[in-house]
From TrEMBL:
It comes from Streptomyces flaveus. It comes from the Bacteria. Residues 26-199 form the N-acetyltransferase domain. GO terms for molecular function: acyltransferase activity, transferring groups other than amino-acyl groups. This is N-acetyltransferase domain-containing protein. It holds the Pfam family Acetyltransf_1.
Amino acid sequence: MLTLTEIAEDPLVLERRLDLRDGTEVVFRPLTHTDAERLTGFLEGLSPESRRLSTFAGYDLAAARELCDAIARYDKLRLVLEEVPSGRIVGLLELSLALTPADITRYQEAGIRLAETTDCRFGPTLADDYQGRGVGTLALPLIADVARRLGRTRIILWGGVLADNPRAIRYYEKNGFQPVGSFAGTDGSPSLDMMLDLDQVPSAATSPTRHCGS
Ligand SMILES: CC(C)(COP(=O)(O)OP(=O)(O)OC[C@H]1O[C@@H](n2cnc3c(N)ncnc32)[C@H](O)[C@@H]1OP(=O)(O)O)[C@@H](O)C(=O)NCCC(=O)NCCS
């Protein structure tokens, strides 16, 4: 089983290339310590609506540095989508190997017992100009493979999904996530819990390149 430290030491172990239908190439890879400036560009470029739908602690160099400094230090694995050849970061896909007491309680109320060692949390954010182009769907089997290699069997949504985020809900549904229940987020926003059983996702590990729509 892969560990966060091993990934930090050899990020290439998770690197894959994705070919979008329009010919754009994107590299899927772990965030590295040298990404702070490029990650700043990604965070700064997020529109107010994207920031509402997917919230970060900040959207500047300090916030980006914090995310880079956190590599292999806590329970988080952050993967980026890097546009080729510009090197621009166009997506940040976050996995957390820890669960919160609130997650555990909400799922318990829905009759699901979460397990610290085999469940993980997922939160995806794409640059505005990359949303709705199928990129999230193309990357999901790669995320599923990473989660499996970390010993996980199920993925839940990190903080749920806002009930007024129809694109994300459709994205999760079409990629096999099942609705679990609804709850009020920390600011009272209506939100939904959804869960993916990794047995339902085909493995992407056999091919180093994935094509949109394939
Ligand atoms: C959510 C997100 C990761 C999904 O990735 P994506 O690449 O945009 O998703 P895809 O293009 O693969 O799929 C989106 C689906 O939603 C559909 N869709 C788009 N807008 C929609 C809307 N307003 N209502 C319903 N469905 C919508 C698309 O048609 C597509 O479904 P289809 O293939 O059946 O036609 C991305 O849009 C994103 O980063 N959004 C902003 C941040 C965010 O919301 N993050 C999630 C927080 S929980």
